[in-house]
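The records we work with from here on pair a chain with its fold. These numbers are not coordinates but entries in a learned vocabulary of local backbone shapes. To see the layout at work, look at the sequence and tokens printed below:
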Amino acid sequence: MDSESYQRMSSTDVYDEYDLAPDFQRIYIAGQEISGISSLGVPLHDLKEASKSLVQALMIREKYMAMSHQSFPKITARFLQNLEDNEEFQGMKEGFGKGSTDVDGIPYFDRRVSDHPFHPPKKEDPFDIEVPMGVECSLKMVQGLMYVYENEEAVKNNTPLELPYVQPKTFLADQNIMYALISDGPLKSFCYRRLSYLSSKYQLHTLMNELKESAAQKEVPHRDFYNIRKVDTHVHASSCMNQKHLLRFIKKKMKTCSDEVVCKDKKSGKEMTLAEVFDSMALKPYDLSVDKLDVHADRNTFHRFDKFNAKYNPIGESRLREIFIKTDNYINGKYFGHVIKEVMEDLGESKYQNAEYRLSIYGRSRDEWDKLAYWAIENKIYSDNVRWMIQIPRLYDIYKSAKIVKNFQEILENIFMPLFEVTRNPQSHPELHKFLIYVSGFDSVDDESKTEHIKFDLETPLPEDWCQDENPPYSYYLYYMYANITVLNQFRR
């Protein structure tokens, strides 16, 4: 189906899944079921309990996505609505905020494709937009959560605006439900058998209908693997180029910009040109090769986060990483901007390939957002094929040991206060206001293999009281990030 046909589809129309498919041979399961045993070979009692558990999990997901104004599949939402009145699922929607079911007046489960067009409007300068006036209100972070107040008097009286978010007690209760489902033996057995059944059914479909499906695909005009729209996700901007591209770019800069000052020597404080940097490493452009660069993540980096991070250092030199693939450096990320624009040009030429590249915000200082936005706008880092994901490393323990922050709340303030300030008054951070238009979301990243010795519960210290050297648990990061993003999305409406 082409994009024009898709645009004409009404969000209220219900299409049978077979209406748009060729007339394939169907697979039916026949025969009488054994008393008390389902067709999957699972006792009916276990099947009912597994079904309840899966519905619980889906309702929890729907609740959290709705409150933070994210879209949820409308078909799934419609089925869940039919079950909400059942006694078994009473209270599962507790925590839904007032007005949390629509985004810009459009129900989150009933939005159209036209609300997100395939082709964005063309502009000569995508950052040449009007910066609107702000609103009068006050902001304050209390116990790790941002609150919006009508004025300073409301701050003194502690009467914030009603911007709903999930309370810690509700979050922990839902988390415990999910932990129970994860460790539920009958549920895991049911899911495994169900997935195995569906996989086998698909293999049978392939055996019977492969030729017919291939013939149907050939009849679709102007569509094959190379001109369907694809999106690359979970790619950090520092690794968006392949190793050959980075090597070619470094050699080109050495040839054309060798006399440009690119950094300061940390020991002497002397400014160094690109040629002097390579001389200090006893390297010449001719000596460089893909193997020498050594930035390819091979099988030796599997489950080795330390080796994976080391691959971001060309030739094993952190100085080259700082010069070529950092946004905040002596040359304000100019080289990094150039190489990303080259990658974006390749994406634009391929037309159907899109990407969601990642940029890091660490929470070490309040001006990180402004520096990142300035880098993007100053270097005109934009492509119709690219959007940005902001990833936040869970590195509180490192910042605390280096005495960069005093408690965990400082990190939260450094991350979220600029976002609330620019929402309140876009003219206070004009570059950030323009940059955020092209940001699609947040992620929390770290070495997932590390064990955690602290559990997040109601007795866990609040962010303003978390002054110990140990890193908070993963769920602690997730809750305070999610809660603040939820309030931010409500505020930005």
